[in-house]
């Protein structure tokens, strides 16, 4: 990715620029309070007592807003924040009668956000007068309940991550906080998330922005994510530093190591943290200079082939003292993932886990074209990874986590039914700490102090109360998951299967998910006998020593297929993923 074209700013210039921005921000945020204060003084001087009384009451409201810590919007926007809450209180009626329904997702519907808020606040999440869904619409899905349904008292469901190469397996929840970096999120947001994870006994992914003091303060379990910038364990040139990595990876709080190959919001693209968002704390945490844009390259420098990736993962496992090591990716060119799998098999060395990120993910800022038009959606990407591991005969060696627009117990249950081992959520937990989906994450002007480095804005996020909401959201979501499992007549989410979920098709018919998606036979890729020919073809194209497709092997395979009447001679342009099998 090209470096920033702007000239590096000195520390003094950055401070001066930030000060100007802060002064303008103060006028915007506190302008109404300042205005009514002036009106109060003028009204008293002119003996307009009714106006003085009215303006004085508003001043008192503004002072109260500055002293309270429960509502971040009121703290950052005294008096004006009440207008928002007043209008929001009538929002359901306005939407219902004049604008849109509560199920419209932009990108999360009001009903989805309300569900998180209710569970985070420990208030009732039940609704009256029937579903808002059209149960006969195309694509509608539902679980099939059992006549042997029963209540489950389990408050948490856990799995063990770690194969035979792992010396320190980790028992983790099936629902955890997905990758969000300090730098993208404020220090208070990170502390609230981590303290909530500590209280609820689940994991908190650091994101690629390294382990900050805010991650460490409360001691919640961490999954340390290494991106292409190797933040927190890089040398002066931005390359991987084994000594620094070992020092941090052996900390007791770090439970797993995750190498980020790509992310759903912008797969195939690096990232930039603008210089104006870089504080001294961020610079120290990431080991980067002040006054310059922080650029994450689009590719890794520690490896360049699938086989080298396998070696790098083993190096990280050894340096960490044998902790679970894996990688995260949004599926792009499928043969590249298959090349990694081939390298695993040839080296007889397997990651402990893989996290599949769907293209619908997106807590960080990204170009619209990448958000809308690059990368594979979660279900398609997960099923490809799952099928490849099953077809290669190594699914039992590797756990698979998933991330991408997962906020409800239904979302979790569905992905576990399809074969996932656990689920991560980023935006769901952002809602739990107060996010209102203003979609201003990249502007440093987040109204609730969640996605900002403005110390005055983030101060509005009260860590003790928000951490309790994080823990409550997790607890109540898993409680609902237990209700799902019990309603189906089972005792654990791992007993869920695709045939427990039904979907209405385009023609109005109903099919089980086991018939909607293709599921490969165990070991089929090793014998080139996958029922879907596309898997056989892409397996042939995969080269464990290169991320490029092996076109010669592909051509040879198709020639042989013609000779054996397999009818597999097609271009890569016409490869189509299977659905109904």
From TrEMBL:
Biological process annotations from GO: glutamate biosynthetic process
A UniProt-annotated Pfam family: Glu_synthase
EC nos: 1.4.-.-
Residue ranges annotated for the Glutamate synthase domain, each copy included: 152-489
Name used for this protein in its record: FMN-binding glutamate synthase family protein
Transmembrane parts of this sequence: 30-63
Enzyme class, UniProt record, top EC level: oxidoreductase
